[in-house]
Amino acid sequence: MTLLSNTYESRRITHRQISVKNNEQPSIETEEHLLHAEAAVDDAKQKALLYIQQAEEEIQLKRNEWVQEEKKIDTIEGIDTKEPAFGLPAKWITEDMKDEAELSGYTVVDPPSVVSTHITEMMKRHAHQLLGRQETQQLIDHLKASYPILVEEVTPEPLSVGEVQKVLSKLLKEDVSIKNLPVIFETLADFGKMTNDTDLLVEYVRQSLSAQITKQYISEDQNIRVVTVSGKVEKLIADHIQQTEHGSYLSLNPESQQGILNNVSQQIDQASLQVEKPVILCSPAVRMYVKQLLERYYPQVIILSYNELEPTVEVESIGVVNI
Q: What is the β-pairing status of strands 107-109 and 223-229?
């Protein structure tokens, strides 16, 4: 039993490359992460099951899955579904149709591989919900074994375990790996004394992880294609930031919000024709507010700031968000 797609091969290579990277000789930071993972696995299993149950994919054990990017997949009979990793249109097909599907140029994937991919994607999607205070404390304890002074400068003062957990959870929610805990804690030690606003601390941490974030999104030729936010929109957002004792938030009137959202929708649609995952790039001063504005409607869209990209990266604009 197998899975099928014209473009799936290149994406499967990406998964393989990630797998290889994960199998490399672990760094100190990775070892700390793995130690935590081993210690917390039993607790995480229980939480993971809750989120896996949210999946709506139906595994047809007596069928294969057929995947492709084209909107029309009517040439082969099967049960309509979606490929779990990228959400592409797909079909479950019977075993006797496997050869026909492969001859048509599609990739066929067996159900065990589909299940494995699906669980992995669900875990990634809900990682920020799986990380609670107890898991955060375990991370801190493992880090403290190698970096005791660093940990003492961060928690319990000026930041509580709960505040550290919020920072890590928000990073995971935007698909930023937290395995480099020493760098994360160095940043929290520097800025935790100035503010306990976890949203602001996340922005500082993201900038300190610029090398990691850059590597995550650049292409093989060391460039990144993005949709930029115009100066006019950035000024509009900056002018409508409200400060409170509990943090800051964006307070745009509904008309302005809708105007920005409509334009973002157009830019994303156009960018999707050129890149797999559209990236919106803006100034660091407004990044978290752009995220606040878009996450309800476009939760999967990547929002980066200029400070999160290494200076050596070539940035190519393929669209501009405007009003």
A: unpaired
